[in-house]
Amino acid sequence: MNIKFQENFNELEVLLSGEIDHHCARGISESIDFKIRRLCPSLLILDFGGVSFMDSSGLAVVMGRRKLMNSIDGSVELRHVCGAAKKVFEMAEISRYVTIKEDKI
Amino acid sequence: MKAINSVRLAFLSRSANEGFARVAVAAFASQLDPTVEEISEIKTAVSEAVTNCIVHGYGDTLGIITIRGRLYENGKLILSVQDRGRGIENIRRAMEPLFTTGDESERSGMGFTIMETFMDKVQVKSKPGIGTTVTFTKYIQSRQ
User: Fold this and answer.
1) How close B127 comes to chain A (CA, Å)?
2) Domain that holds residue A88
């Protein structure tokens, strides 16, 4: 798992790549939370374009970050959700809680 | 019906082995010529079951997780994931969507729901103090 951050004005963009499972989920969540607390962005963008595998640990990563963003009146947007991650998100009806931006890579 | 091939994997309940387990099972299942989507579903279900053994079965202790796989000629794959951990008191409740006894910031409570969605059949056997075995059946569709 690899995480890259991009900061633009009030947005924090997180580029995730590799596999998201229970083994690495806590590290991902902690490093994103550290950035959110420091920058207090109004929008958190989680980009799943480089994610090759994701199980339910990825749901907890998204829902936990949504909770933190809600506490600072911000919102969460998912981008480039495809493959395995897409199926898990669809099953959990995650679009009820966060915006999913459908665009092609 | 007799299995055409079988494997048994045993490994320590360290979270670093989650990746090993799902990739090893995917490699075994690939003998049935599954689609990319089917392989992805198998990997996800195995990852959920192994994570349950680590987080709920063994918790703060370490133990052995055993995966058994069997392949059949008609494209049937049977996988079982077993721990000798603390077991589940109430299996029906554990399988409910969004139910978790784990840390809510880390666990979604969707593990069993994902297993049931991605596999054709999921069977859970558990005894408190003895351990838990989750058995999956998946039919790999023939592409001929």
Assistant:
1) 24
2) 2-101
By CB neighbour count within 10 A (0-12 exposed, 13-18 middle, 19+ buried), where does A12 fall?
buried
Mutate to test the interface with A, among B104, B110, B118, B119 (most CBs of A within 10 A): B110
The runs of H, that is alpha helices, within B30-135 are 36-52, 91-94, 111-118
Among all residues of B, which ones are annotated catalytic?
48, 52, 107
CATH (domain of A32): 3.30.750.24
What digits encode the pLDDT tens for the residues A49-61?
999 999 999 999 9
The DSSP 8-state label assigned to residue B31 in this structure reads G
Tell me which of B14, B100, B105 to substitute to probe the interface with A (most A C-beta atoms closer than 10 Å): B105
- Residues in Cβ contact with A12 at an 8 Å cutoff, skipping those fewer than 6 apart: A5, A6, A35, A36, A39, A41, A43, A44, A45
pLDDT tens figures, B77-121: 999 999 999 999 989 888 888 878 777 667 778 899 999 999 999
Give the β-pairing of B131-139 and B76-83: antiparallel
CATH class of domain segment(s) B5-139: alpha beta
The verdict on A26 touching B (C-beta cutoff 8 Å) is: yes
Average pLDDT of the residues of chain B: 93
This model of the complex carries an ipTM of 0.91
What residues of A are in contact with residue B41 (Cβ under 8 Å)? 87
Q: Which of A83, A52, A97, A29 is nearest to B98 (CA)?
A: A97
Mean pLDDT within B139-143: 83
Residue B17: its H or E element: helix B17-29
